[in-house]
Write a structure and sequence with these properties.
By secondary structure, the chain is mostly helical. The chain has three helices and no strands. Helix 2 packs across helix 3. The longest helix is centred in the middle third of the chain and has 133 residues. It is rod-shaped and about 205 Å long.
Length: 186
């Protein structure tokens, strides 16, 4: 059968190039191509273009937002760093002020304690001096009484003149104090 077809083709007399399609195929293929090209050009291409434009705008908007966010973050970081530096400086100043206040409080407490100690010492000295004077007066009167009793016992009489007896006792005590003072100064 193949032989019959080859013989029929040879009889026609036309030699046909197998690489070139027939004319009607070229015409109909061109018409279909032009229709598809027209539809693609008018419908699909504008939709693709708007889709790509929207995507491009969204990407550019996101990039702009990211840049703005980065600028804000950098500004916030600089502000935070400045605030942190200020806070550290203020904390140092407060710490130094607290140390100074502590030193002042300690100095005031020392001064107050020293004043209180001086006051207590002065009070104690005055109290001791008052008790010494009281003891001295009491001792004078007792020594005077004992001396008068002793003198009366030696003489055999009672000394009844209080003024005279008091003068004798005072003179005796003055001599006693003078002899004690001489011993202390040597």
């Amino acid at each position: 059968m193949l032989n019959a077809l080859v013989a029929y083709a040879a009889e026609e007399g036309e030699t046909h190039n197998p690489l070139l399609p027939a004319t009607y195929d070229i015409v109909w293929s061109s018409v279909c191509f032009i229709v598809i090209l027209f539809i693609f050009w008018k419908v699909a291409l504008p939709k693709m273009k708007t889709l790509l434009d929207e995507r491009s705008a969204a990407i550019e908007g996101n990039i702009a937002k990211a840049d703005e966010a980065q600028r804000k973050a950098e500004a916030a970081l600089e502000e935070y760093t400045a605030q942190l530096a200020d806070a550290r400086k203020e904390a140092g100043e407060i710490r130094d002020a607290a140390r100074e206040d502590g030193k002042k409080i300690v100095a005031e407490a020392k001064d107050s304690a020293a004043a209180e100690a001086a006051r207590l010492t002065a009070t104690a000295h005055s109290q001791i001096e008052a008790e010494r004077q009281t003891a001295l007066v009491s001792l004078r009167s007792e020594v005077g009484t004992l001396a008068l009793d002793l003198a009366g016992g030696v003489i055999g009489e009672t000394l009844s003149d209080d003024k005279k007896a008091q003068a004798v006792v005072d003179r005796f005590l003055a001599e006693l104090e003078a002899s004690e003072a001489e011993k202390a100064s040597k």
